[in-house]
Amino acid sequence: EHLRLEQESLYIPIPKSGRGRHVVLNAVALEIVQRRLPLAKQGYLFESTRNPGQPINNATKAWRAILKDAGIDHRTTTLHCLRHTHAALLTRVCSLHEIAGILGHSHISTSQRYAHLQQGQLAQKSALVAEIMQSSHSSPSLVTG
């Protein structure tokens, strides 16, 4: 009932923060949702195998099965590791404000834990500005605009 395919989003009414939020679904997530829809018997995309008709309430068992199939030790890779990796990859293409929105952080300060991952990107952007400034030496209109 909270899935909005036409808007490519999923509403989570009671997330960890306690305030409902919309999650943007990328193409990969949408593909997974589309594959799961025919299995959603009681309205849950991911139904509990232990309690049929109820949603899963802890993804750890499924996560461990996925890791086992992939040959990855569950003691070294948690769901939180996956979230952290996603956030780290976001730093390559997003601002901290955008990361906060994607990850559902209510305060940008929560997203700042990933700021150190942007140092290389920040250095590149600063170098681009330096190049513009150097090239403006021959064309003053670039600096004064």
Compute the average pLDDT: 83
> Which range best describes the helical content: under 10%, 10-25%, 25-40%, 40-55%, 55-70% or over 70%?
40-55%
- Coarse morphology: elongated
Low-confidence sequence ranges: none
Number of helical regions: 7
Q: Give the DSSP E fraction (strand runs of 2 or more residues).
A: 5-15%
The helix/strand class is mainly alpha
Largest sheet descriptor: 3 strands, antiparallel
Q: How do the SSEs run, as a string of H and E? A: EEEHHHHHHH
The rounded distance between the terminal residues' Cα atoms is 52 Å
What is the strand tally? 3
Overall radius of gyration? 21 Å
Sheet with the most strands: spatial strand order: 1-2-3
What features would you describe in this structure?
By secondary structure, the protein is mainly alpha-helical. It contains 7 helices and 3 strands, in the order βββααααααα. A hairpin with an 8-residue loop joins strand 2 (9-12) and strand 3. The radius of gyration is 21 Å and the shape is elongated. The protein starts with a strand and ends with a helix. The mean pLDDT is 83.
Task: Sum up the structure in keywords.
single chain, mainly alpha, three-stranded antiparallel beta sheet, about 140 residues, about 45% helix
Please give the structural blueprint:
Blueprint: E1 3-4, E2 9-12, E3 21-24, H1 27-36, H2 60-70, H3 79-90, H4 96-103, H5 108-111, H6 119-136, H7 141-144
Antiparallel strand pairs: 1-2, 2-3
